[in-house]
Amino acid sequence: MRKYIKEFDGVREIVYVADTKKHELLFLNKAGLEAFGYERPDQVVGKKCHVVLQGQDFPCGFCGDDRLNEEEYLEWTHENPVTGRKYRIKSKLIPWEGENKTARLEIADDITEHDIQEMKIRTEKRAKSEKIVMDCIKMMYSTVETDVAINNTLEILGNYFKGERVYVFRIHGLSMDNTYEWCAKGVSHEIDTLQNIPLEVIDRWIPFFEEDECVIIEDLEQIKEASPEEYAVLKPQHIQSLITVPLIEQGKLAGYFGIDNPWADNLHEISDILKMLAYFFQSLLERKKREDYLRKIGFTDAMTGALNRNAFIRDTMFGNSMGLLTAGCFFIDINGLKKTNDTYGHEVGDKLILQIYGIICEVVGKYPVYRLGGDEFVVLCQNISGSDMKELKGKLKEELGGKNGCSAAVGQSFLENPGDLSLLMEDADREMYKDKEVYYKRNSSA
User: What domains lie within the chain, and their CATH numbers?
Assistant: First the structure.
């Protein structure tokens, strides 16, 4: 055994053998002598191993490790206080030839430079991650327009991680909608088709999301059998891998954002960055919700839900007719509302307003309805044909001609290539007053 041990003199690793009972060095190879500052073996052999190798007066805590045996090596790492270097150590028991005893063999490989390099790589990755996060946060708050901030942030993430698609989904009840999307060049957009998707499609994800954990799919084919519904939705989008991160609002799952087919160096590192950004994304989405609410109350009639005068002014500003082939307008004024209020009270009058608004919406369908005053509504019809305008007018006159107690004057105008919507509205308003005069003449003579 001693002859065999001598062969360790030619290796770069530090190799030593120590008596397990007396804690005396039996052998230290040339690499070990050099590392600990000795020239000859006789300077260390017979001395306490813990004094020579660890610089301490008492046996090392790991010396009596009962896991050591003669069959296999026990591997561990240790930072040596004498050399100041870090080693990966392999230890085992060996029989010591010529003597009836067992010795401890240790082979120590210096991994200090490897650790330094790993630390450098980790530091560089951390610096890169921090830069990505800071760039995204700056972008999120660089503009007062929330939609622009969110879309620009998605673009930054897509470019950093070389993803094909970055997106946000919002959950509403038992469904979810894709609300924001960025796509790399050549990648088809999916946002229009990913609306009102059943929440059950992501049943597998929800337990992770509720624990504020990411969902990582490294290879979509691996879930084909276990999650067929999920696979059926993702496969047509040409997804091979993805990372999704939950968005939590007031302690509840409100949605998620994610990235498809990112650069697959380390999906878990990407997920850590996305998790750091989740709070800021959610704060942006909450800001957007507040903006939408304020916009709604700013442009919506509180009683009926119709668009209000502010919305009407916004939508009929000069220039809004650019590109229109045709435009039509209806002015509708409720007949006898003041008399109804005076005779039966405003509660009945309000019911009449709501009833007539409902009739108008049912007749005109997709075209926007505005309430400009207590008894006045306007409908704008962009790119409508003359025949359709005529048909709508006939239906409005029929439904608002006194049927079920609902009576209103209706004025209509229609223009091709409208240059100024104000002219269109003046004509409709003028015709509505003519219709109202007819109503009052007819009713005053009755």
Answer: 2-110 (3.30.450.20), 122-295 (3.30.450.40), 309-445 (3.30.70.270)
